[in-house]
Amino acid sequence: MDQKGLSLNKYISSSGLCSRREADEMIEQGRVYVNGKPAEKASRVNFGDKVTVDGEVIKSKEKYVVIALNKPIGITSTTDKKDKTNIIDFIDYKDRIFPIGRLDKDSSGLILLTNNGDLVNRILREENNHEKEYLVTVNRPIGRDVLKAMAKGRIPVHRKLTKPCKTFPVSKYGFRIILTQGLNRQIRFMCRHFGYRVSALHRVRIMNINIGKLKPGQWRKLSHAEMNELERQMK
Predict the structure, then answer these.
(1) Which of 111, 123, 144, 185 is most buried by a 10 A CB count?
(2) Reported pTM
(3) Is 2 a known active-site residue?
(4) Could you report how far apart the first and last alpha carbons of the chain are, in Å?
(5) CA dist 35 to 47, 49, 225, Å?
(6) What are the beta bridge partners of residue 70?
(7) Structural domains in the chain, sorted by start
(8) Catalytic residue among 49, 83, 104, 118
């Protein structure tokens, strides 16, 4: 089992079946299976895992939510209520949630929010190379040679070098870029390196989650299929 996620005894107890101590006893007795394999007390449960006790599938009542928001320009990806443009007050969700990563105040597009801190850590972990896709408009015609140079990586940003990425021209002034890195204002610095200024930056995808038909300011909960695929990619 992945050492992230919810502890197995907490998962079982939150189903209402028994206490955590009793759940530990069931695990020791070999009555608990996770994804068809005998469980251990150290086992963890992630979204999409199948837990059975005495052959019966059980489900935790403790749920976590992931929301996809099309963030408008001017909203800040912070939970700090002192900032009047904070994303939490903007979305006004009934439960406590927080953004997964950031999207600059002067950028728009897809950002995910959740009440699951573990999920945040796993998505943001740099070595996992999770893709994020953007549409970029710059202040003058963008050459294919520049896009190829961007794609090769090794551009200095905050004393680090960018990783190779994917770039595609979409118009005279616009291009599409897919990153697996998350340096602060990375795309803007990459463009500045080649003498360009970003006039519009819009994120359209994070991993398997697409912005779809969400209008600026609109949000939706991820579907069960999206959650399962998200969990698969993180494993």
Answers:
(1) 111
(2) 0.77
(3) no
(4) 10
(5) 12, 6, 18
(6) 110
(7) 6-58 (3.10.290.10), 66-228 (3.30.2350.10)
(8) 104
